Amino acid sequence: MNLHQKHKLTKVINAAGPFTPVGVSRSSKNVSESVATALSEYFIIDELLDVANNALCNLTNAESGTITHCTASSITLAVAATMTGCNQDKISALPSINNMPNRVILPVGHSINYGHSILQAIKLSGAQPVLVGSELQCSLSDIEKELSNKKTACLLLVTSRLTKGVLVDLFNAVKIAHQHNIPVIIDAAAQDMRIDELLSTKADLVLISAQKYLASPTTGVVIGDKELVKAVRDQGKGIGRTMKVTKESICGVLAAIEDRTNSDSKEWTHKQNKKISNFIQSIDNLPGIIVKAVPDSSGMPFSRVHLIVDPIISKIDATELAKQLKNNTPSIWVIESMALENQLVLELVFLTKEELQTIKTCLKENLIK
Fold first, then answer.
1. 42-261: which CATH topology?
2. What is the spatial distance between Cα 23 and Cα 20, in angstroms, rounded to a whole number?
3. Average confidence (pLDDT) over 128-134
């Protein structure tokens, strides 16, 4: 009896990508076994974090790295680190800011909601988000106007398909912030395959979700400036205590880093492209559906499948089709953010051949009457 049967849980096919409400991603056997072993052992957590630091530095060539409970907590702790540094009195005082710099500059289009608002993640540290620009565009001059304020703690930028408007020039935004001696944090939760590029911006901290494409247990990764990473880690003696990372999560990340180190990125990308191509070919004749592959908008090395629904021909709109997929057994979850435009998006990265066949069958049942 598996866990779904034992606990009478809904069986899910996750074509929505590393999506928290359905359990994010799938871990390898190596990660699963490392987590299981860790659960039955004792460790000195600081030693484990030191090992993680070395592994992250070897993987990314970053100056330093640490692990948090998740990327949402990484945002709060990274912002806190720019306010307190490693000063224990200041760390103990948060979220009371006293006379600390506490303004966090954030482009309006980067004010995303990933289950809760990024603004709340900032405010949990005691900091005050300051939104600049508009949803359509945030210029470098918009950002620079706010950087000269002496109460500014950091510039927070987001790289994600959830952001809105014209892309902010990350390289020059970081450069301008540093001219004002303001540290820069980049929230790149689902961007772990772009770490080299993101670190090359000279951002002080880059935040990654290890549970997404690294496929570890739920864990945040913080890499970058040695002193600021230490300040993030030191938040564990303050507000970070409520967001502490566990032994099994650290060991899971270490195993996931092993998997990534031993993998061939070009071969991985080739397999993903082939999976996309085969899937599109197999459903390309569905009535009222245009199927196409669309590269990841933020630069990750894979595409997603877009289903463009003509409700007149197909006799069903995208919203209703998503509902029918979700009501299937097993329940099929897709990306519905464009459903009002009659588009559904499927991410195939972690799906098996059997799951892809189930999706094909369900689509045909709902579109061929």
1. Aspartate Aminotransferase; domain 2 (3.40.640)
2. 5
3. 97
